[in-house]
């Protein structure tokens, strides 16, 4: 496993496999950058790195699609795999199962070092100016410019017993003030409330442009009082290096591109949003706390990674979907559920979790028990909070292959006997189809679709993989180009 410790090293590796496109033509932070990145998502094009931005000083850059999917054969998940230390040719099964195996390991805390590249340049006091950075106006209906869509917010409890990393969007207000989502039911909201209970603002550090694994671990729904940085260390078998901030008592990844330090108000709120969101629709505007900035540090020629959230497939789906699937798989294994693998289909905008089950055959009654067992484990888990729909399928199906999943779901799941609905389950309020009452209560109906067949013979499946003897398959594949096909 290769631990990539620097965003710039990661970009060099992307360039080596044709997954990075540097753009030297001047582009506008006002909608143009967002539109280009959205088009890149649609085409599964290389990650765009914008080197020249209108009305922004030379050297300040923007990166899009750092965790996007590829159109190159065998490299569909290459950016995810490289970010997590794996081969760019890794399959979804390899990525999810490797990450799931890391979740149960003993944590390795960060290593504190005295200085890092993230503090090559420093702005404090009256010199603080957020407007120097090329924060883009991403969607035409957004409420403002967003300086953070991919960076990690770092906060600690007042007693310093828990350091939490998370990703939350942050909107600019002026040169030294921002606002962003602080959701009460999430860990950042819980910690913010602890500071409010002490009548104090909450110190924060926003680390933008970290090593590529950091967003994935920041997106994990870990139990309270478990540090994401420790789990990242366990995954790589070595600690991440961090440095102390300049004006708040927090520590940030040493190689990140930009660090914004300050405090989150315990009294003042402003309107945040709306913004295009991961489900593919523009969300609502709502009051959120003010982030007061006390310092900005940054690397020379800094890179600001951004996500243009919306219709799949974009980085929110690849990042959150990957870690949600891995965390659910780890939870299923812990409870001895016979799961082969899991995958949050990117095309479903994180609404479908597909679980494949290891088994040669089962009775009709046992498949119902498995469906109920899956519900009890998944919907009661931290990772399951965000998952509204679960599809159980046999392990002849690749859960990351949308064509296979749609076929199996359509042909194996009886709408009457195989759809199991569960009312009043905790849910993510950002899910688009929820009623206003459900959003307010963060509670709604969830469903498990049981596509497990009581028994079947795989030779009955009429496909290339299962419908022909191995020697015939091998002959066809070895002669494919001789037949005149290019791919």
Structure commentary:
This protein is of the alpha+beta class and 487 residues long. It folds into two domains: 7-306, Roll (Pnp Oxidase, Chain A), CATH 2.30.110; 335-456, UbiD C-terminal domain-like (3-Layer(aba) Sandwich), CATH 3.40.1670.10. It contains twelve helices and 21 strands. It has helices at 7-16, 32-43, 78-83, 92-103, 187-197, 214-218, 228-236, 315-334, 364-378, 402-412, 436-441, 470-478; strands spanning 20-23, 47-50, 61-64, 111-112, 121-124, 146-148, 152-156, 163-166, 170-174, 177-180, 202-208, 241-244, 251-253, 258-272, 286-298, 303-306, 339-344, 352-357, 389-394, 419-426, 443-450. The protein is globular and about 70 Å long. The mean pLDDT is 95.
Please bin the fraction of helical residues.
25-40%
Task: For the record, give the distance between the C-alpha atoms at the N and C termini, rounded to a whole number.
Answer: 31 Å
The CATH architecture of the largest domain can be given as Roll
The structural class is alpha+beta
Instruction: Give a count of the beta strands, DSSP E runs of length 2 or more.
Output: 21
Name the CATH superfamily classification of the largest domain: Electron Transport, Fmn-binding Protein, Chain A
Give a nutshell description of this structure.
The protein is an alpha+beta fold. It has helices spanning 7-16, 32-43, 78-83, 92-103, 187-197, 214-218, 228-236, 315-334, 364-378, 402-412, 436-441, 470-478; strands spanning 20-23, 47-50, 61-64, 111-112, 121-124, 146-148, 152-156, 163-166, 170-174, 177-180, 202-208, 241-244, 251-253, 258-272, 286-298, 303-306, 339-344, 352-357, 389-394, 419-426, 443-450. Strand 9 (170-174) and strand 10 form a beta hairpin.
């Amino acid at each position: 496993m290769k631990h990539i410790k620097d965003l710039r090293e990661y970009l060099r590796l992307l360039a080596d496999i044709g997954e990075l496109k540097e753009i030297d033509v001047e582009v506008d932070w006002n909608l143009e950058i967002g539109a280009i990145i959205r088009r890149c998502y649609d085409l599964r094009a290389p990650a765009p790195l914008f080197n020249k931005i209108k009305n922004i000083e030379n050297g300040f850059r923007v990166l899009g699609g750092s965790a996007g999917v590829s159109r190159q054969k065998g490299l569909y998940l290459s950016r995810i795999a490289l970010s997590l230390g794996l081969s760019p040719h890794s399959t979804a099964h390899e990525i999810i199962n490797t990450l799931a195996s890391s979740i149960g390991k003993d944590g390795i805390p960060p290593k504190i070092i005295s200085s890092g590249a993230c503090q090559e340049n420093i702005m404090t006091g009256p010199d603080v100016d957020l407007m120097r950075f090329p924060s883009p106006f991403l969607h035409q209906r957004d409420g403002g410019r967003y300086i953070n869509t991919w960076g990690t917010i770092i906060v600690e409890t007042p007693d310093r017993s828990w350091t939490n990393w998370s990703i939350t969007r942050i909107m600019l207000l002026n040169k030294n003030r921002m606002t962003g989502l602080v959701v009460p039911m999430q860990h950042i909201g819980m910690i913010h409330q602890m500071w409010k209970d002490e009548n104090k603002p909450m110190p924060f550090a926003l680390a933008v442009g970290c090593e590529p694994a950091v967003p994935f671990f920041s997106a994990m729904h870990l139990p309270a009082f478990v540090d994401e940085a420790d789990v990242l260390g366990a995954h790589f078998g070595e600690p991440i290096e961090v440095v102390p901030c300049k004006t708040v008592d927090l520590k940030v990844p040493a190689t990140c591109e930009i660090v914004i330090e300050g405090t989150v108000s315990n009294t003042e709120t402003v309107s945040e949003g709306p913004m295009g969101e991961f489900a593919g629709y523009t969300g609502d505007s709502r009051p959120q706390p003010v982030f007061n900035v006390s310092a900005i540090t940054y690397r020379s020629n800094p890179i600001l990674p951004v996500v243009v959230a919306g219709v799949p497939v974009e980085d929110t789906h690849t990042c959150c979907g990957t870690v949600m699937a891995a965390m659910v798989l780890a939870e299923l294994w812990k409870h001895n559920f016979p799961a082969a693998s899991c995958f949050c289909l990117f095309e479903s905008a994180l609404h479908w979790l597909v679980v494949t089950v290891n088994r040669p055959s089962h009775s009709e009654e046992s498949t119902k028990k498995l469906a109920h067992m899956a519900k009890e484990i998944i919907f009661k888990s931290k990772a399951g909070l965000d998952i509204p729909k679960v599809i159980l399928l046999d392990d002849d199906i690749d859960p990351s292959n949308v064509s296979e999943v749609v076929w199996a779901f359509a042909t194996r799941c009886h709408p009457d006997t195989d759809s199991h609905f569960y009312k009043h389950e905790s849910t993510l309020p950002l899910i688009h189809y929820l009623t206003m009452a459900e959003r307010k209560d963060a509670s709604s109906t969830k469903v498990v679709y049981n596509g497990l067949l009581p028994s079947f013979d795989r030779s009955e499946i009429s496909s290339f993989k299962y419908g022909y003897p191995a020697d015939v398959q091998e002959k066809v594949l070895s002669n494919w180009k001789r037949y005149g096909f290019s791919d």
